[in-house]
Write a structure and sequence with these properties.
- This protein has 359 residues and is α+β, with helices and mostly antiparallel strands.
- The chain folds into three domains: 3-112, PAS domain (Beta-Lactamase, 2-Layer Sandwich), CATH 3.30.450; 117-188; 197-358, Histidine kinase-like ATPase, C-terminal domain (Heat Shock Protein 90), CATH 3.30.565.10.
- Helices cover 44% and strands 28% of the residues.
- The chain has a five-stranded antiparallel sheet. Strands 7-9-10-12-11 form a five-stranded mixed sheet.
- Helix 6 runs antiparallel to helix 7 and helix 8 runs parallel beside helix 9.
- The two termini are 20 Å apart.
Length: 359
């Protein structure tokens, strides 16, 4: 391996976007992190003017040109840049001019604020969930013991009484004790290890679709799909992923039953896509599967959007607030991530799962 190849490999493994520019601000090289930010490959970006990548950024480009002429570096914080495909990114960037073989060049380092914010949010959520899980497991033990006693006493009482009306009362006690027992089990979550094997992710989505279609009969909700057949097999536990995706789709169904819906036809879209050059947590993957659940419901209130993956948080009076945290836990076990974007009329949950053989 040549030294040039070693340098390129090192740059491609950075989480920071790196762009090499000539004196005319034409791109000589961009690393994989910059490819992901700008959604363009190094091959296609070569010799493009920076203004072809960063759109309507005359002020930023002017500052870069001045910095190269003066051979002085500068840093810009919390910059809002419009890039290709009508995408807006929020970044910190530093431009550092230098001389190479008698020619002026510049190194542009770009750090995505959204990526840093996402990692911080995910770490905070995982820490809070771990603490909550231990608390709930302790409470579950304390709750299950008296529940078992109540249920047992109700069964003994049912054997002693002859009245049918009294039996109805004991049945209520037994049924409610069972319901609370099941609720506690759901709060604690499964401790069963994942049964990992190669699966077709679309078999998971089709299973979810068939289950949901059976529930939608006569509900005035249309469930459609848009799959990318090029997604290769992933290593996962299909039953667990079915549960995770089912919880998300059912969440969309319930939002469409809301009195705040201002249209006559509810729509849910299941969409799959290949995504390239993604960072999940602190790990970089060249290839991943993106699974989206999109609905045209009333949206999630902005004051709740950051809390929906915490246990017992629900936007519905009758909601348990367990479905999304369970999904988050399952996706986390698969080294994936789940995100939500929401506004009135459109809510999108995105699950990203790494394709291990391509990382």
């Amino acid at each position: 391996m040549t030294l040039d190849n070693v340098h390129k490999r090192l740059l491609d493994n950075l989480k920071t976007g790196v762009v090499l520019l000539d004196s005319n601000l034409r791109l000589l090289y961009i690393n994989i992190a910059a490819e992901a930010l700008f959604e363009i490959s190094d091959r296609k970006a070569k010799q493009l003017f920076i203004g072809d990548i960063i759109i309507n950024a005359e002020e930023d480009i002017g500052e870069m040109q001045t910095a190269i002429v003066k051979h002085s570096s500068f840093t810009k914080r919390k910059a809002e840049l419009n890039v290709l495909h009508d995408k807006t990114i929020f970044v910190d960037y530093t431009l550092s001019p230098f001389e190479f073989e008698g020619e002026s060049q510049a190194l542009l380092e770009i750090s995505s604020l959204e990526h840093a914010k996402r990692i911080s949010r995910e770490e905070s959520l995982q820490s809070a969930q771990a603490t909550t899980r231990e608390l709930v497991r302790g409470l579950a033990h304390e709750i299950k013991n008296p529940l078992g006693g109540i249920r047992g006493a109700a069964q003994l009482l049912a054997q002693e009484v002859a009245s049918g009306e009294l039996n109805d009362y004991t049945n209520v006690i037994i049924e409610e004790a069972d319901r609370l027992h099941n609720l506690v089990d759901r709060m604690v979550g499964s401790r069963k290890p994942l049964e990992l094997k190669e699966i077709n992710i679309h078999e998971v989505l089709e299973r979810v679709r068939s289950l949901v279609n059976a529930e939608l009969s006569g509900n005035g909700i249309k469930l459609s799909y848009d799959y990318d057949p090029s997604i290769p097999a992933i290593v996962a536990d299909s039953e667990q992923l079915i549960q995770a995706m089912l919880n998300i789709v059912r969440n969309a169904m319930q939002s469409l039953d809301s009195p705040d819906v201002d249209h006559t036809l509810g729509e849910i879209l299941l969409r799959s896509r290949i995504v390239r050059n993604v960072t999940i947590g602190a790990k970089f993957y060249r290839l991943a599967a993106s699974l989206e659940v999109i609905d045209n419901g009333p949206g999630i209130p902005q004051d709740m959007i950051d809390a929906i993956f915490y246990p017992m948080i629900s936007g519905r009076p009758d909601g348990s607030g367990l479905g999304l945290p369970i999904s988050h836990g399952i996706i986390n076990q698969h080294n994936g991530m789940i995100e939500c974007e929401s506004k009135p009329g459109k809510t999108k949950f995105t699950v990203v799962l790494p394709i291990s053989n391509h990382n």
